[in-house]
Amino acid sequence: MKNKIIQSILLFVFSIFVMYGQKEIDKKIFNQMVNYCACEISHSYTKSYSENGKPENVAESVFTEEQEAFRNKISSKISNCDIDKSISQTELIELLVRNKYRTFATKLNTAIERVKSFYDTNKEEEFTELIIEGFYQDPNIKPIADKYSSVTNLKNILEIELKSFSDKILVSQNNPNTKPNNQKKKPEKLIDPKEESAFSLIWLVIILLPIICSVMLFYHFNQKIRELHKKLNSNELNSKQSCNDVSFKVDEFEGKLNTKIKELELKINTTISTKLEEFKQKQESKITSPIIPQVEKSLTYKKPELPVIPKAEEKIMYVSKPNKEGVFEESSFSNSEKTGKYYKFTLQNNSEANFEFLNTMESVSMALDSPEKFIELACHSKDALNQYAKKIITIEPGLAIKQGDGWIIKEKAEIRYE
Fold first, then answer.
1. pLDDT tens column, 250-266
2. Which one of 97, 285, 342, 372 is separated from 137 by 20 to 30 angstroms, measured CA to CA?
């Protein structure tokens, strides 16, 4: 229902716009103006062509026939074109075809059809300018106008004639009782129908808009009130139904609760009776049975003590840098941390030892000056070489195996720079 009302209102407003948006000049008058221009252009061209003395793509004999046809038949028909009583399109084209101007007639007919089609496709444009530019920009007429100056000069005359005629038509439409002036004189003051139509349309919209809005608002609030009444009625029914449901559920719960209480009382009484009987029987059995002394037996388990194996003492040695072959020479081993020592060896046994870089200020400074001699042969680092580091920390010790008088590096130590 709501959509139908809105559609009706929109259709009404659209009809008003269509009514006030009608054109000032109807199609019949528009075609009359087009036919007048075609008549004038035809006369100007045929006259200039026949008086030019130069044939266009025809033999001299044919050109002579065209000249005679213009003088004897065409000139009298179109020399005095009248916009009020203009020759029709069909009559003009047949006149040209019958009298040796078939090619021009075909081009002109195409141009006329094209210009007349502008009436439906160009609703907002000025008709005078539309017709004139339509002819002179047409691909069939433009080359003719460019070649013959008389056709070009005719453009200004046609503009004046069409403007005067359209103004006369507009005045007669706005003043139906006024007889049109036959003189080709532009009125001093004209009423612009576009402005009058726009003014009337604005006032009509101003009047109709509040009415339309009021109707839509009334309908909208009426619908809301109806929906509210429906909701209130449904809520009232739901509340009654919910009250009945709650009352029924309370009664059902109360019955179940009473049943559970009775069952619980019965179980408690039965349990108490059973326990009293058991207690009496125990007391009676204690009185009748002899007392037998019990012998306490205590068994203790002692965990055997394991022999303590003394841990082998780790031997610490301080070593100089490895040689070019990556071997620590045993002759450089020392028990104390002296100058010239760069690695600390922890001997696991006589053939294996763990080693790490000796992190002293002197050893760090020397190692960073020549890392290829002091570091890279026995260590590898996770990060890049940092020659500005203050410390060289061993993350994972390396492994060396004794072979002859030296210790061969089996696994390099892992270090980082700080």
1. 788 888 888 889 888 88
2. 97
Average pLDDT, the chain: 80
- pTM beyond 0.70: the answer is no
Residue 36's alpha-carbon distances to 26, 77, 113, 323, in angstroms, are: 16, 13, 14, 117
114 neighbors 134 (Cβ within 8 angstroms): yes
- Amino acid of residue 359: N
Between CA 24 and CA 112 the distance in angstroms is 21
